[in-house]
Amino acid sequence: MAALDRRTFLAAAAAVLAGCSSTKSSQRAAGGNPLAPSTPTMSVRSAITSVVMVGDSITEASVAQLTAALGEAGVDDARIEGKASRRIEVGNGNGSNPLSGVGTVFSLLVGGVDPSAWVIALGTNDVGSYADADQYGMLIAAITDMLPPTKPLVWVNTYRQQYLDDTLLFNMVLADRMSARGNAVVADWYSVAAAPDQTVLRSDNLHPNDNGKNALALLVLAALQQL
Questions:
Q1: Contact 200, 209 (CB under 8 A)
Q2: Long-range contacts of 193-198 (CB under 8 A, 24+ apart)
Q3: Which of 15, 60, 88, 129 has the most CB atoms within 10 Å of its CB?
Q4: Is residue 66 part of a domain?
């Protein structure tokens, strides 16, 4: 795929950073989202015409922004499967318990879903629940082993201040696993969410605000451009 047009990327990144650097109080005073109508269009390679994204509440909160951004980039079919509290392996979907990422991906595959590229945005609800890098590696493999190795894959990494050491460990293992898999890119949500001069998170310091939702959409587009 051709490299992302530098001027387009820099303009988009500047828009995100400019909007995210505003104080939360000024965002509320403005009464709107400065990025929604004016975020520049970025195209993905012509071979990527459909995308399935499986994530948790961060994805669920950003469905509108992700769908709009992918559509503007030339993705004809974007299916965003975000669910609050979703974990990678834990969760049977009964009652208020969300179906796990593994279960969701399996159901999609069994149902014949075959997108041009997959996007996974899971791990935030798993960091802090496993003992070491090997366990995080097996957790990630539970998803990646289900997908054809030739299928392009983007995995959005995690930011959870409450479990920062485990967040960093998970992200390190994820980067290693994506590099070893090939045809895969990590979308670095951690660097955006952790930046002290950005305002992309709500007061819970976990879920994206309006700026964060647009920043996430931009990250996913940029990652798809790298495949």
A1: yes
A2: 193/159, 194/159, 194/161, 197/21, 198/17, 198/20, 198/21
A3: 88
A4: yes
Number of Cβ within 10 Å of residue 103's Cβ equals 17
For residue 11, the 8-state DSSP code is H
Side-chain-facing half-sphere of 195: CA atoms under 13 Å: 15
For 171, the 3-state DSSP assignment is helix
Residue 1 domain-assigned?
no
Using a cut of 0.85, tell me whether the model's pTM lies above it. Answer: no
Structural domain boundaries enclosing 82 = 6-226
The answer to whether the CB of 56 falls within 8 A of the CB of 82 is yes
According to DSSP, the residues that pair with 154 across neighbouring strands are: 119, 185
Strands (E), the chain: 50-55, 77-82, 117-121, 153-156, 184-187
Checking DSSP bridges between strand 184-187 and strand 117-121, what pairing results, if any?
unpaired
d(CA 36, CA 56): 22
Q: What is the CATH number of the domain that holds 46?
A: 3.40.50.1110
